[in-house]
Specification:
By secondary structure, this protein is an alpha+beta fold. The chain has two domains: about 5-70, Winged helix-like DNA-binding domain superfamily/Winged helix DNA-binding domain (Arc Repressor Mutant, subunit A), CATH 1.10.10.10; about 80-205, Umud Fragment, subunit A. Helices cover about 20% and strands about 30% of the residues. It has helices spanning about 5-20, 25-35, 40-50, 70, and strands spanning about 55, 65, 80-85, 90-95, 105, 115-120, 130-135, 145-150, 155-165, 170-175, 180-185, 190-200. The radius of gyration is 20 Å and the shape is elongated. The chain starts with a helix and ends in a 13-residue tail after the last strand. About 35% of the residues are buried.
Length: about 210
C-alpha cells in the first residue's frame, strides 16, 4: 500500500512498541520521533492512517494508538522479542528472559520470537553459536524442518533440531555428526514443539540486535 513516508514510520514505531511490550508513543513523542515542528502534523498522519483502517485509537486517551490487523500487514521494519537461549547441542535449561529492550530485527517478516543459539550442533545447517534463530509459533512441523522443541525431562529444556516424525514418536536430528539423535515418544507430556525456524540473524551479516539484550 502506498503511503507517506511519515505514516510508514508511525506504523513501524507502533510495531516496535508492541514488540517491546511498552505503551505506544504520545503525540509529543511522535513529534520528536518524526522530526516535525507541530503536533498538528502528527495528528494529520494519524488521521490518515485511521481512515485507512491501519490504526485505531481511543478519543481523548493518551497512548491509545494501536495497529489494526490490516496495519500489522503494512509494517516493513519488524522487531521481535528475544526470549532467551536455546541449545544447538545438548538440551539446556530453558529460561524465558524476555526484557522490554531485548529485540532483534525480523528480516523474514514471519517470525513471532527469537532465541539465541548456544552450541554447534546445527553448524552444517549454517546455524552457528551466537546466531539469533527467528521462529514462528506452531506446534507441528513437516519432516526435516528445523524446530525448537521443549523437553520436560528432569528440568524444562529446549533445543533446536531437525524434526523427523516416526510412527511411535519423533526423532530430533542435529546438523552435526558429532551429536546423537534425540528420540521422543508420542503421547507423552514431556515434550512439545514451540516453533518452526523461519530465519536467523547473525552479527556478521551486519544486523545487530537492538536494546540492552545485544
Amino acid at each position: 500500500m502506498e503511503m507517506h513516508e511519515k505514516q510508514r514510520k508511525i506504523l513501524n514505531r507502533l510495531a516496535e512498541a508492541a514488540a517491546r511490550g511498552v505503551s505506544p508513543p504520545t503525540i509529543l513523542e511522535f513529534v520528536e520521533f518524526l522530526g516535525v515542528k507541530s503536533p498538528a502534523v502528527v495528528q494529520y498522519h494519524l488521521r490518515k492512517l485511521q481512515e485507512a483502517q491501519l490504526i485505531q485509537k481511543t478519543p481523548g486517551k493518551s497512548r491509545s494508538v494501536q495497529l489494526t490487523n490490516l496495519g500489522k500487514g503494512e509494517v516493513t521494519d519488524r522487531s521481535i522479542p528475544v526470549l532467551g537461549d536455546i541449545a544447538a547441542g545438548m538440551p539446556i535449561l530453558a529460561q524465558e528472559s524476555k526484557q522490554p529492550n531485548d529485540l532483534v530485527r525480523d528480516l523474514t517478516g514471519r517470525g513471532d520470537f527469537a532465541v539465541r543459539v548456544k552450541g554447534d550442533s546445527m553448524k552444517d545447517a549454517d546455524i552457528l553459536d551466537g546466531d539469533y534463530a527467528i521462529l514462528r509459533t506452531q506446534k507441528t512441523a513437516d519432516q526435516g524442518e528445523i524446530v525448537a522443541v521443549l523437553i520436560r525431562d528432569f528440568d524444562t529444556e529446549a533445543t533446536l533440531k531437525g524434526y523427523y516424525p516416526e510412527s511411535d514418536g519423533a526423532r530430533f536430528v542435529a546438523a552435526n555428526d558429532e551429536y546423537d539423535d534425540i528420540v521422543l515418544e508420542h503421547g507423552a507430556d514431556d515434550w512439545e514443539i514451540l516453533g518452526k525456524l523461519v530465519g536467523k540473524v547473525r552479527y556478521d551479516d551486519g544486523y545487530m540486535p537492538e536494546g540492552n539484550g545485544a
